[in-house]
Amino acid sequence: MNSAGMNNQAPTPLPPRWRRLWLLVISLGLLLCMWQAAQLAREQALSNLQDDAENELRLSAANLNGYLLRYDYLPQMLATREGVQRFLASPDSQDPMPLNMLLDRFRFTAGVSDVYLLNRDGDTIAASNWHRPNTFIGQNYAFRSYYTDAIAGGQGRFFGLGIKSLERGYYFSSPIWLDDTSPDAQPDGVLVVKVLLDDVEESWAEQDAELFVTDSDDIIFMASHPELRMNALYPLTEEQRQALRETRRYAMEPLSPSGIEINAPYRQGSQLVSFSQGPLSSSDYLSLTRHVPEFGWQMHILKPLTPVMSAQWIAALMAGGLYGVVTLGAGIGWQRLRLRREREAFAERERNTLARVRDELEVSVERRTRDLVASNQRLSDEIEVRRRAEANLRQTQDELIQAAKLAVLGQLAAGINHELNQPLAAIRAYAENARRFMALARHEKADANLEQIVELTERMADISAQLRQFSRKSSERQEAISVQACIDYALRLFQSRLREGNISITQKWPNETLWVQGDLVRLEQVLVNLIGNALQAMKGVPAPQLTLGAQIHQQQVIISVTDNGPGIPEEHLGHIFEPFFTTKAPGSGLGLGLSISSRIMDDLGGKLQATNQPEGGVCFTITLPHSPLTHPQENSSYA
Length: 639
Prior knowledge:
It is a single chain. 51% of the residues lie in helices and 18% in strands. The protein is built from 15 helices and 19 strands. Helix 11 (483-492) crosses helix 13 (520-537). 25% of the residues are buried. It comes from Vreelandella sedimenti. InterPro entries: dCache_1, HATPase_C_sf, HATPase_dom, His_kinase_dom, HisK_dim/P_dom, HisK_dim/P_sf, Sensor-like_sf, Sig_transdc_His_kin-like_C.
């Protein structure tokens, strides 16, 4: 052991100066790694952001172009209308209202803002907004370029603020010729269609970017952000302002500068910008511009650099974390190398100790194993004894249930005997009559008596089948059971007692069949037991009334058996489901019927309860899960 310790000496610790130098190198390496990762992430994020911006800008420009050009044909089509040309030929001698209403219908159908007609001098002589306070009728628009272009024989286009409405709109115009056969013919009027651009701007608001459009004078006349509209992209000179006032394109809007500042160019067609004022001054943006040649406009998109900043921070943190993991791994490796020899020496010392402990542990494990084997054998014997006991208990319970059913059959014997004696007596009388009729050769009468004998034997077979069905053992098979049919079957077993006792029966259940899941034989036994107890409780009652009901409540079927007998004393109500407890006279019962019925309901996943009625009598309720069926006739014994 001493020689091993000499050969595995630990490395000498580093001096404090070298430790400080290593800490400085590690810190500088961390900063460099994080900075480089942030730069790479910035370039990648900016590239992705530019690709997204180019796609969004291309789609938005195509949408704007398509939205406006779909109205390009409209003024040309309306200029050829006979009603428009007829009114323009002699406007002073005609009523303008029919034409005004026609233009209003065209405006509504096409979905444009206004449609109006100018004469050769630029005066508005008919308009779709004739009924509004700011109607164009009577206004002169000869200063507008859409008028001068159209009166010169071409198609006019113009964007600007309305003189009366001050609404931003795009104008399409077309000349109207009353006589276009002459080589030197001149247009006699101009038809103008005004289109608003609010719908296009509303669609821009759904994008994660700022969109705006500038004209040739760098005026922002369309923007997804309302506060950017009617601002100059860059500050205007006084000469530029004066020229715009003369065209009256933007009325008297101040055209304040937007405050945009170019921070740095990025790639061809894009640059990094910010705003010194206004609603967008809180962030930096990537700006891209796309020319719209059909209208001579420039469309701009501003994508916030927030995702770029987030990507930089995430990359820097991830690089720092990775650098930390690598550094930590290197430190752990160095530390492990430093402690390796000490561990080897320690392991050699412990090897002998572990060998001794292992030998002791093997002896202890062997002894404990013997104890566990013995305990396991005892436990297996106890499990086998319990299993046999449970099997015997189950068999005893089934035999007890069958015995209770046979006891109920014994109680029903007198009524069944009466039910069978009447058909037997009738069969004998019909047989004697048939013999006499056959001796007298009256075969029709004999055949009628024999037919009556057949019907009586069928009736006796039905009674016998009911007894056989009730007395059979349960199959313990879960099936769908019709509640109404099960109650009807139980009542048939008590027909004679019901007639002899003059007992009135009230049935309360819905028209549709109620189905429960359970054991048919066991549910029949419970119902027969409850009905038999009710009949016995109503002996001596002046007007016995048996009420049978069924209903659905919260996916549960509740079956009730109610009598109007004297009820159960309150002190006994909590004990009636206990084995061998009975309120009957000695010799009238063992007190097992309700106990067995309660146990059957527990096995079927249901519940049996009893309550006294305020008007007298007892109500027994059976609660079972509802079992809706698609084709009940294929699943139930009572179908």
